C-alpha cells in the first residue's frame, strides 16, 4: 500500500512539475513531447532523428522532449490530461492508451489519415488502435518472439532444437539438472519470470496458451476461458513450473541474465534478448531459432496519438510529426537504429539485415504473430486489464501452489473475467 501511495504521489509531483511548464506566449512555438524512451539506446536515437527532421522542416517550431520514468508514466500522463495540460505529441504504451481514449482525450485520427493518404494496410499491430469505431493512435512497434538456446547444452545431451511443444517439454526435462549433487537444480531447461508484475506473468504463460489454441476472449470481446484449449494451456504452464523446469521467484531480468550466463538452456523472449545475450558469459554458445510454438508470442508495444483538446493549428503540427515518424524513410531507419522490425510493411530493412544476422527471424516472427492477431491485451478487457491480469496471475499461482485442477481454475477465471466486463 505504501509503495503504491509513493508511486502515485511521485507521478502527481512529476505531472505538476510538467504542468508548470505549460506554454506561455514566449514558448508558443514549442511542442511538448513526453516519453519514457528518451535515453534508450537505439530507439531513443531514432526519436531524436524524428525530432531533428521535424525541426528542420519547421524552423520556427521546437520540440520540448521530456523523459518520465516508465513506473510513473501512466499516472503522470493521466495527471497532465486531467489537468487540461496534455503533451502535444502523445506517446503511450499500447496497453494503457485505452483509458485515455475512453475519457475522450485522444483525437480520432481517421480524418487525418484519409486526408494525408497514409497507407496502414499491413501495418503490424495497427488493429489494436481501433477504439469504439475510431482510430485513436498509430502503432509504433509490434514484435514477434524469438527462441534462444544454448547450443552446447543441447548438444551435450543429444537434444535437437525443439520445433513443437512435445519436443520442447522433453528437452526442458532432460536439460534440467542438479550438477553438484545437492538435490537442487542448478541448470534449468527453460526460464520464466514468476516474480513481479502481472502483465509480465501473463506474457510468460502466453506461449503455452497460444500453442494450445486458447484465448481469453474472442474477436467480439466475449470471454472464452472455460474451454478445453485453455485447460490444456494452463496444464502446460503448471507442468513447467511445478516440475521446476524453470527457476522460481526471479524477475525477467534475472532470468535473462541466467540464460546469457549459461545456467538456462532455452528461453522465449522479445527481440531485446539478443543484446543481453551478447553481454553474457555464454554468448559464444547461444543461438537463435524459430519459436517452437504456433502462433509465436507477439505483442504491440507503444503508440503515437494526438490530444483532442489542442487547437487545430497545433494538431496540424502534431500530424506532421506523426507523418515523419510513419514515413517510409523513418520506418526504414527505425529497423537499423532500434534493431527491430518496424510496423510498416514498406520499410527498407536491407541495412538492418546487413548488420543484424538474425533480422529475418525477427521479421518472420513479427509477421506470423500479427497474421494470427496475437496481442497482450484481450479484446473486451482493455479497460480492466490491470485487474484482469492480476486475477489470472493469482489464480495461476494458486493452481501451482495448491496443485489445483486446471479445469477448475479455468472455470473460476472465466467467471471472474465476465464479472470484470
What distinguishing features does this structure have?
421 residues, three-stranded antiparallel β-sheet, 46% helix, 17 helices, four-stranded mixed β-sheet, single chain, disordered N terminus, 11 strands, alpha+beta
Describe the structure.
- With 421 residues, the chain is an alpha+beta fold.
- The protein is 46% helix and 13% strand.
- The protein has a four-stranded mixed sheet with strand order 8-9-7-10. The chain has a three-stranded antiparallel sheet with strand order 3-11-6. A two-stranded parallel ribbon has the order 1-2.
- A hairpin with a 2-residue loop joins strand 4 (130-131) and strand 5 (134-135).
- Helix 1 crosses helix 3.
- The two termini are 25 Å apart.
- Residues 1-13 and 19-26 have low confidence and may be disordered.
Topology (elements, then pairings):
Elements: H1 2-19, E1 30-35, H2 43-57, E2 62-67, H3 73-82, E3 90-93, H4 97-102, H5 110-116, E4 130-131, E5 134-135, E6 138-144, E7 146-150, H6 151-156, H7 165-175, E8 188-190, H8 198-211, H9 228-242, H10 252-260, E9 264-269, H11 273-277, E10 286-289, E11 298-305, H12 312-325, H13 328-338, H14 350-355, H15 359-371, H16 385-401, H17 406-420
Parallel strand pairs: 1-2, 8-9
Antiparallel strand pairs: 3-11, 4-5, 6-11, 7-9, 7-10
Amino acid at each position: 500500500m505504501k509503495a503504491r501511495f509513493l508511486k502515485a504521489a511521485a507521478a502527481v509531483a512529476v505531472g505538476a512539475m510538467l504542468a508548470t511548464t505549460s506554454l506561455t506566449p514566449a514558448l508558443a512555438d514549442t511542442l511538448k513531447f513526453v516519453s519514457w524512451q528518451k535515453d534508450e539506446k537505439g530507439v531513443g536515437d531514432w526519436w531524436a532523428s524524428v525530432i531533428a527532421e521535424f525541426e528542420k522542416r519547421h524552423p520556427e517550431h521546437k520540440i520540448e522532449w521530456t523523459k518520465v520514468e516508465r513506473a510513473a508514466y501512466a499516472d503522470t500522463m493521466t495527471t497532465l490530461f486531467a489537468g487540461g495540460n496534455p503533451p502535444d505529441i502523445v506517446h503511450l504504451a499500447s496497453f494503457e492508451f485505452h483509458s485515455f481514449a475512453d475519457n475522450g482525450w485522444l483525437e480520432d485520427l481517421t480524418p487525418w489519415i484519409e486526408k494525408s493518404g497514409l497507407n496502414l494496410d499491413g501495418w503490424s499491430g495497427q488493429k489494436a488502435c481501433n477504439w469504439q469505431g475510431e482510430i485513436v493512435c498509430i502503432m509504433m512497434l509490434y514484435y514477434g518472439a524469438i527462441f534462444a538456446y544454448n547450443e552446447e547444452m543441447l548438444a551435450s545431451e543429444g537434444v535437437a532444437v525443439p520445433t513443437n511443444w512435445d519436443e520442447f517439454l522433453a528437452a526442458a526435462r532432460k536439460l534440467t539438472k542438479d550438477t553438484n549433487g545437492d538435490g537442487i537444480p542448478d541448470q534449468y531447461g527453460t526460464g520464466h519470470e514468476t516474480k513481479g508484475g502481472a502483465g509480465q506473468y501473463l506474457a510468460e504463460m502466453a506461449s503455452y496458451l497460444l500453442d494450445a489454441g486458447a484465448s481469453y476472449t474472442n474477436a467480439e470481446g466475449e470471454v472464452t476461458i472455460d474451454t478445453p484449449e485453455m485447460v490444456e494451456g494452463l496444464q502446460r504452464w503448471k507442468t513447467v513450473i511445478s516440475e521446476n523446469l524453470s527457476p522460481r521467484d526471479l524477475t525477467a531480468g534475472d532470468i535473462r541474465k541466467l540464460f546469457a550466463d549459461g545456467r538456462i538452456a532455452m528461453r522465449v523472449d522479445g527481440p531485446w534478448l539478443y543484446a543481453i545475450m551478447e553481454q553474457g558469459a555464454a554468448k559464444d554458445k547461444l543461438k537463435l531459432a524459430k519459436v517452437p510454438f504456433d502462433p509465436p508470442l507477439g505483442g504491440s508495444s507503444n503508440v503515437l496519438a494526438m490530444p483532442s483538446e489542442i487547437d487545430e493549428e497545433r494538431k496540424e503540427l502534431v500530424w506532421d510529426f506523426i507523418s515523419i515518424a510513419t514515413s517510409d524513410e523513418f520506418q526504414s531507419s527505425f529497423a537499423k537504429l532500434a534493431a527491430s522490425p518496424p510496423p510498416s510493411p514498406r520499410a527498407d530493412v536491407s541495412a538492418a539485415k546487413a548488420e543484424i544476422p538474425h533480422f529475418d527471424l525477427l521479421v518472420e516472427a513479427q509477421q506470423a504473430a500479427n497474421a494470427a492477431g496475437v496481442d497482450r491485451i484481450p479484446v473486451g478487457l482493455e479497460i480492466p486489464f490491470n485487474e484482469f491480469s492480476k486475477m489470472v496471475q493469482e489464480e495461476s499461482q494458486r493452481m501451482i501452489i495448491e496443485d489445483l485442477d486446471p479445469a477448475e481454475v479455468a472455470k473460476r477465471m472465466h467467471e471472474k473475467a465476465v464479472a470484470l466486463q
